[in-house]
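Supplementary Text 2. Reproducibility record for the structural model of the 342-residue chain.

All settings were left at their defaults, and a single model was retained for analysis rather than an ensemble. We include the record here because the model underlies the residue-level annotations in Supplementary Table 4.
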Amino acid sequence: MLRILPYLVITVCVLLSCTSKIDSLTENKIKIRGVNLVAPPEPFDPVYFDSLVELGVSHVAVVPFGFSRKGSQRVIYNHEKQWWGEKDEGVFKTIELAHEHGLQVLLKPHMWISGEGWPGDFFIEDDFIDQWFNEYNQYILHYANIADSMNVEMLSIGNELRKLAINYPAYWKNLIEKTRAVYKGKLIYSANWDNYTQISFWQDLDYVGINAYFPLPKNRIEELTDLESIKDSWSPWVRELNEFNSKVNKPIIFTEFGYMSKDDSYNGHWLVSDSAYDEEDQALAYDALLSVFRSKDWWNGGYSWKYFMKSIPREEYYRRDAFIFQGKKAEKILKKHYSTGY
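Retained model, structure tokens:
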């Protein structure tokens, strides 16, 4: 017994060390104060990570796109024609720099559907669904292996694939099982705000992810005029989210939230894209969301959409891509909330 004791001690220590390492890599000890990073077309100056730290950011989402098209079973990713930040070289470097700056990482692959863009309505005929999911599995498992090798804290297995997520849950459960076989961190799926209650595989994941573009007000009757009225208009959605959390018993993360710098931006970006430029309403919308949710125990924080790793020339980008908060009033609101750590 005495002869084998040292070996037992060594084995226990190794196991405890591994467990401790995994826990430290995967557990989110604080509410997420995050941003989604726009993958840049070329290598960027690390000074932008200094700016994020100064803003109070604790987490970043790295977003490598994959591409498919209607009538095709292919999923294209890490292609030579993609931007640097979406190819493996850029993904590795971005994760490395984020960790060097003390930021935790969500690796969050997105699908882009050629000719359609948003993947929410993308659908594959039953005769080809096996082939498509086989390609999609390779796409996600590719990033699962990167996430594991880079000690990434969390991985999203999909983003806003509304029809495919609702109609083919068995394929997603199979993907989750395969992903857990190669990746030790936390898993999440990023559902659109209008269908998160229809996802049937939340219990197989660690978190509920919602892209939180909830339109305010929900009933479209009341008029919102100031911060308090916008905060009050969240009440129906908060009740719905609270009830949902009670059913699934999983923390909720807003894998995306954000607003356009447009009049009445809190109404829903698909309804206000042609409205007049308005930084004030964007700032009010940010302030209301973070004020309402920061006190909710079941809300684990979120990632603002979106942050460019480059300087933003005002006239070139501000009106064309109104989701930008950099250099606008909304950035000061984000800093006000993020710098206090919720």
